[in-house]
Design a protein that fits this description.
It is built from 5 helices and 15 strands. It is globular, with a radius of gyration of 20 Å. Strands 1, 2, 4 and 5 form a 4-stranded antiparallel β-sheet that branches. A 3-stranded antiparallel β-sheet has the order 3-12-11, with no helix packed on it. A 3-stranded antiparallel β-sheet has the order 6-10-13, covered by helices on one side. By secondary structure, it is an alpha+beta fold. The mean pLDDT is 97. Helices cover 27% and strands 22% of the residues.
């Protein structure tokens, strides 16, 4: 691209007054192929307008999670939560992203106990006191996606073992987010998550992970929650992705339900917990766009 061409980001400014210095900094790095280091593609570096769109979608998404949380109680069926969230998102001008996504039949994912993720809400699935529950919601607002999930303890009390898992899973997410630095590396996230999970006797699911999000549901980069410091893609301002480690009390291996093709469970039947936030890499650190 020539200095006087319009910038690739769509700002309308000339390249030399927009992203030229930015690209020069990216190109100044010596990428180590043995550490899988690589440049981020331009199409995942978002504009201020894009980021504001995701931020607004995040407001609706977080409010939908708040609503879902108020409905988590013993005796509640999970389809009722799904229906209430769908109506809330639509009332606020949004679209529940999960509904009909690659055939997923419901608007949100509700995953209980040994279900790692992609649990399908149902009238037949009744919450019981002591269950640990992940509710994962993604909202589309004006074409922009925001994605987050939270854990809930049904009835407010569970076993000490389950309570610890929920707490440590949240700490893993928070440590993963703390590891995100502008001009740092993607592998730093997984290194931080895995170290804390292992220190507490837990394992990290490797078959699933975080992902870029914004103008589509899933874009680059894939965000692994096991990794080595200083490896993977270079993290630069303007990147938006989720940090969402899935932490198992037992082994890390998972299995997908053969009947519904969606529900992911721990292979050994152990409990699993997950928290998720959508974050933006900024010039000075990060900003949480949905949580």
């Amino acid at each position: 691209m020539n200095r006087n061409d319009l910038c690739w980001c769509g700002s309308g400014l000339k390249y030399k007054k927009c992203h030229l210095d930015f690209d020069d900094r990216i190109d100044s790095y010596k990428y180590d192929v043995f550490k899988s280091q690589c440049k981020p593609p331009h199409n995942i570096i978002l504009t201020p307008a894009d980021i504001e769109g995701i931020r607004k979608s995040g407001v609706v998404n977080d409010a939908a999670l708040d609503l879902a949380g108020t409905m988590v109680e013993p005796g509640q069926n999970t389809e009722a939560i799904d229906t209430a969230v769908k109506e809330f998102i639509e009332k606020n001008g949004g679209i529940p992203a999960c509904l009909n996504y690659e055939g997923f039949p419901k608007s949100i994912c509700i995953s209980i106990n040994e279900v790692v993720c992609h649990g399908i809400p149902s009238k037949k699935t009744i919450l019981k006191e002591g269950d640990i529950v992940n509710i994962d919601i993604t909202t589309i607002l004006d074409g922009y996606y925001a994605d987050a999930s939270r854990m809930f303890i049904v009835g407010g009390k569970t076993s000490p073992e389950a309570e610890k898992l929920v707490r440590v899973a949240k700490e893993c997410m928070e440590l993963g987010i703390e590891a995100v630095k502008p001009w740092g590396w993607l592998g730093d996230i997984g290194a931080a998550v895995n170290a804390h999970a292992k220190a507490n006797g837990y394992s990290v699911v490797t078959e699933l992970g975080g992902h870029g999000v914004g103008k589509d549901f899933h874009v680059e980069p894939f965000v692994p929650h096991v990794g080595q410091p200083g490896t993977g893609m270079l993290l630069v301002p303007g990147m938006v992705f989720t940090v969402e480690p899935m932490i198992n009390a037992g082994k890390y291996k998972v299995t997908v339900d053969k009947k519904d093709g969606w529900t992911v469970r721990t292979k050994d039947g152990s409990l699993s917990a997950q928290w998720e936030k959508t974050i933006l890499v900024t010039e000075t650190g990060i900003e949480v766009l949905s949580s």
